[in-house]
Design goal:
Elements lengths: L2 H46 L6 H11 L29 H9 L1
Length: about 100
């Protein structure tokens, strides 16, 4: 086998191995991130010293002040509006338009 081809094939195999390794690592890191974020939330909530009966109001107030608002199960996440196609093509589209465009 050609030496260059053999070298490229080895690089491909190394890349595939690295990709597999990173794909296995990703869920572990995502879980770790979630655990750390949850720990931060718990720490913040405990430091607020909120009575259990006021907990829901506290969280709602916090979310509204952070700009997130709170969605209940009856209120699904709003869908983003579709972007309108505002691009206009300056080129003429019909034979008649082309004739008039040549006159300009």
């Amino acid at each position: 086998m050609n030496a260059k081809l053999k070298k490229v094939n080895q690089e491909i195999e190394r890349a595939r191995a690295k990709i597999a390794e990173l794909q296995a690592l990703l869920p572990v890191l995502e879980k770790q991130r979630t655990q750390l974020e949850n720990a931060e939330w718990i720490k913040a909530l405990r430091s607020a010293d909120v009575a259990p009966e006021n907990f829901n109001a506290f969280v709602e107030s916090f979310m509204v002040n952070m700009g997130g608002g709170i969605r209940t199960p009856e209120q699904p996440k709003p869908r983003p509006k579709a972007k309108e196609d505002t691009h206009t093509d300056p080129r003429p589209t019909t034979a008649e338009d082309k004739t008039h465009a040549d006159e300009v």
